[in-house]
Amino acid sequence: MNTAGICFSCFQHTGGLNPCPHCGADAAHIQVSPQHIAPGTVLNQNYLIGKALGQGGFGITYIGWDLNAWRIVAVKEYYPSGLVTRERGLYVAPVDEDARIKLKKGVNQFFKEALILGNFNLHPNIVNVLHFFRQNNTAYIVMEYINGKSLKDYLQARGGSISFTETMQILCPIMLALDDLHHTGLLHRDISPDNIYLTVDGHAKLLDFGAARFSIGEETQNAASVIKPGYAPLEQYSGSGIEQGSWTDVYAMGATFYRALTGKVPTAAADRAMGRTLQSPRELGVNIPEPADKAIMYAMNMKPEERYVSMRLFEQDIEHAASDEKKAVVYSDQQPQFSSSPVWNPPAWQVSPQNPVFPQVYPFQNPFPNQGLQSPVSQQMSNAVRFEPLTTAAESPQEPGFFEWTVRHFRKKIRRFLKKFRK
After folding, report:
1. Across the strands, what pairs with 61?
2. Alpha helices for 242-328 (secondary structure H)
3. Contact 73, 132 (CB under 8 A)
4. Domain shared by 274 and 407, yes or no
5. Chain center to CA of 119
6. Model pTM greater than 0.85?
7. Does residue 13 fall inside a structural domain?
8. Residue 402: what pLDDT?
9. Based on the domain organization, do 318 and 179 belong to the same domain?
10. In whole angstroms, what is the distance from residue 37 CA to residue 283 CA?
11. Which of these, 263, 232, 269, lies nearest to 247 by C-alpha position?
């Protein structure tokens, strides 16, 4: 495929110019790590890979171009650092036999998470999964590409912190989305301002499930956790996964509230365990209702049993704090400044001449107009998840779907309970 003149940052024709006249990327100085897939590679005969957007402990995310659906996508590659290396620029090879076993299990887990996330494609606050497939001895998830910026970048553009009202309006929908995910048994384990994106059309979206894992029974992963100091609770430092649950994500969400309100990353849990104190937002001078201040600090308790057991309970306390504060306002000519509703209009981060927090988003053009590509598919087909077999013919039989897996799991749970009861 001739990719001459294509910018691997925005997939538009540069007209031979450098930097790109559309996005400003300097094609002559794109740095490609030996661990990354080279820009211009085509995966699954359908996805043209561009530059790497980021790399975490479990995967690498690239910007890509869907050659069939004629759109920009994000492609997540399962690449557990420390367990694998890159061979021949593409193939993912385990470093030893133990890593080979862990890689195979990790790929299967990667697919199960994609199946779960695919069921949330209509959720406005969770990134959409479009496709997933095996290749190069690993697996890939194709997701919608988010036009916008991370909450971390948004906070930086706003001077480091935002008001309680705006923080609540951004994070409360994310909390409810996490609660829905927790009911499927899936944990995120890497919640922070880096992984919450604010879109130009007014939504907050949760993404980057590279550290996700199942929390129930035999499906618990024992791989080392991704530690993000300030956001990870103490139980993640052990890496055993024994005490991790919905309360683990509750801690990280409390820390995200703290960062958005105070402009400071909370004291790391490991340092707190050594005796360092963590001042509350109100103690740092933040204008926040006292019940909300207590709710945030309760969510960040060091002991899991002393936190909220579910994200919904945390969200309800935040909502009630805002509602009580609103009722306490003495009405005058000026109306109260914040609402208890998680829906806001218009979003503070929407693109407008008065609010240049985001750069102008350019409409995407087909970068290959003369290569016989299909015309854009309908919106309904664009949002559909295309499923691939979980295993190849040379591997073990196809794994069960989510429904079958759920039925089998709870049958095992019932059998274990009956066996224990008989004893």
Report:
1. 54, 76
2. 246-262, 269-273, 290-299, 311-328
3. no
4. no
5. 15
6. no
7. no
8. 53
9. yes
10. 47
11. 232
